[in-house]
Specification:
It is built from 5 helices and 5 strands, in the order E-H-E-H-E-H-E-H-E-H. With 215 residues, it is an alpha/beta fold. It has a single domain, classed as Rossmann fold (3-Layer(aba) Sandwich). Helix 1 runs parallel beside helix 5. The longest helix is centred in the C-terminal third of the chain and has 23 residues. Bound molecules: flavin mononucleotide.
Length: 215
Amino acid sequence: MSQLLHLDSSADRTGSTSRALTALFADSWHAISPDHSVIYRDLHANQLPHLETNAQHWAPRLRVPGEEVAPEAEALQQQLIDEVLSADAVVVGAPMYNWGIPSTLKAWLDHICVLGTTMPLDGPTQPFAGKPIVVVSSRGNTYAPGTPGEGTDFVIPPLREVLGVALGMDVFVVTAELTLANRVAPLAPLAAQGEASLAAARSSLVDLAKTIGTR
Ligand SMILES: Cc1cc2nc3c(=O)[nH]c(=O)nc-3n(C[C@H](O)[C@H](O)[C@H](O)COP(=O)(O)O)c2cc1C
């Protein structure tokens, strides 16, 4: 196992927690051996377009008459799918934006989820099945059980569904919460909890890189 696809989607280019954590994973991956390479895509700095047409959700053989995709849009979609196909593992930064994922990350997901190509429909088409993907979710608040935010995290459950169920990938989730504890006054009493969450995320990612990268 040697090639990692490293994706970031935070709009924060300087103080981002998810960027720092995905970079830590990528560095740990690199450190395993000279054969452990990394391909990087910054979904915020180099934003993908939205899907040009609903036809891109269907494999070409499943499109109905009139559903046509421009060659450039088809080529970009294929490139994004190929990047996942050629990777042995993926790490993706998924900050919480308004209870969900950034639209830049959603655009990538919409491109790689294709019925009959990467998702099963008329046959067992799931070429990403079993591929490890590490989701690094950063969030300003906490959504832990027993907190007011419990049940309102629309980052991790949808990602588990689309990556793990629809695409069949082996999903690992690492969360860093309370990243805004030092900025938002009502969260200040939870600052130590936020620091502990970050330390645990760092440790998990170093361990996961070693485990996945030496499988
Ligand atoms: C547009 C935007 C929306 C946000 N919405 C939420 C939110 O709904 N819940 C939350 O806990 N934090 C929210 N935050 C805070 C971020 O989740 C937090 O700053 C996190 O650390 C972002 O990841 P990053 O540090 O990798 O940029 C939001 C931040 C931005 C910029």
